[in-house]
Amino acid sequence: MIYSRVYFVASTLPLKYILENNQNKKTLIIVKNHEIHKSYQFLKKEKKNIELELLPKNFILRLLNIFFLIIYYKLKNIKFFFFHECCWPEFDIIVKIFNPKSFYIPIVKMSGFNKFNNKFEQVGYKTILKLKLFNFFFYNLFTIYYRKEKNYTFYFSFKRYPHKVKVKKFKIIIKNNKIKNKKILFLVSREFCDNSETVEIYKKISTIFKKKGYKTYFKDHPNENSRLNVNLSKMSKINPNKPFELIENNFDYLVGCGSTPLSYKGSRSISIIRLIKSYKEKTAKSRIEHMKSIYDGKEINFPVKISDIINIIK
Fold it and tell me: Quick check: is 175 in a domain?
């Protein structure tokens, strides 16, 4: 089948671009893994022109699939789109080798992460050895970043794509809708702090909005590994796999901590990160810089006291 557009996706972040650029023509989305496939299935139900192809779970089989797909698109002179900044190194290497005509669309920046500098004692010698070997063979291709919660998580960000890969910038349409639904959505997820503290803060903010006549809803992270897995009994629950991008117009305000969709609504979003005492200052600062660097993130509200929220609500 001939598709008007082909996308390779490794997270749910590209959903915003795909939705805003959907022209009701045949579209194929090639999905990296099962976790995000659940979210893209909602998109397929909503948009009948979209089809999905889920890559194999096994790394070797997935690698072979990517290899043959990119060779096929190169031979057929079919341009495709991809988005990821840090989560698909095997795809990046194949693109580097074959240099297919394609479009890279940056979605986020890596400003909220720390650069790896080969000086880790806490992660164990085996992890250090693997990272140093990766750095030795692919130093000119990747910058390695990390985040630390209980353990270190590493991310491999491609430095520079070959010349046939064109960078296409994406600017979302900022909508400053008037308050109409009297609904608020809490975007909850596991954070780099005492998560029981975040739950208590969410409950307090929910009470403030309810007194103002708002209905409150909550949605956990689409990635199972990032979920808070909490039951906020006094709020209505939304399926965590359902993409926020399909429901964002239903809500007047968003409340979260470091969630990317907070930047979609800008001044209609509230981040609780400065309210969390257990959040390390350096980590919180990098998270805030990350949110402010994308979309309408500079307009996000970062209250330092719970009482500040009353002045935000209109």
Answer: no
